[in-house]
Amino acid sequence: MANVFTRIGVGVGPWFRKKIIDPLVQILRRGAEPKQLAFSAALGISLGVFPICGVTVILCGMAIAVLGSHCHAPTVMLANFIATPIELSLMVPFLRLGAIISGGPHFPLTSDALKKVLTGHASREVLESILHALLGWLVAAPFILATLHLLFLPCFKILVRKFSPVPASSPKKALSSLTEVKPKVRDV
To answer: Which InterPro entries does UniProt cross-reference here (predicted)?
Structure first.
């Protein structure tokens, strides 16, 4: 697997391995449950495609705080990191979906509109387009979460089995032998 990533490019392969592959392998080796990992990865990507840049880390942090032990924090944050390029590519579809749902006008994506945003002269149209993108994300996010969870669950079952330091049946046997209590019987 390492050979594939080093063939991609001189700088991309080692970067990809250090930032994506190595953290994922560490997560898998720590023995988290596949269901929890699948949910956490789906949640991280669903929040990671939020259409306002820079907000996704805060959203993931709040989700981790609210969900507590129901999600795996490192997996949520890693998935959020992985979702960054996807976030940028989904802004326009979220904008269009929100405009369709609200029945609002079609916002023209021109260089003039971008100049207005960058110079701080955002018009009402630009602000409405941001609200449309948020609406599009709010409608799509539950479907993204559910679909990704269903896709990730079998993947994480395989990956956890492959990278688990202890075979899946051993912890149960080891735990049962440790907790087994044998009463002492005295002859009277």
So the answer is: DUF2062 (IPR018639)
Tokens 């579809």 belong to residue: 93
Domain chopping of the chain, boundaries: 12-162
Vertex 87: Cα angle to 34 and 25 (nearest 5): 30
Cα torsion 155, 157, 160, 163: sign: negative
Cβ-contact 59, 22 below 8 angstroms: no
Name which of 60, 56, 55, 97 is nearest 75 in CA terms: 60
The pLDDT assigned to 130 comes to: 85
Give the CA distances from residue 163 to residues 32, 70, 72, 127, 151, in Å, rounded to whole numbers and listed in that order: 11, 22, 17, 47, 19
Distance CA 139, CA 164 (A): 37
Separation of alpha carbons 43 and 24, rounded Å: 16
In tens, the pLDDT along 112-127 reads 766 776 777 767 777 7
Has residue 52 got a pLDDT over 60?
yes
How far is C-alpha 95 from the geometric centre of its chain's CA atoms? 21
Distances (CA, A) of 87 to 80, 84, 112, 136, 172: 9, 5, 23, 13, 41
At 137-186, the pLDDT tens digits run 999 999 999 999 999 999 999 988 888 776 545 444 444 444 555 555 56
As a whole number of Å, the end-to-end CA separation of the chain is 67
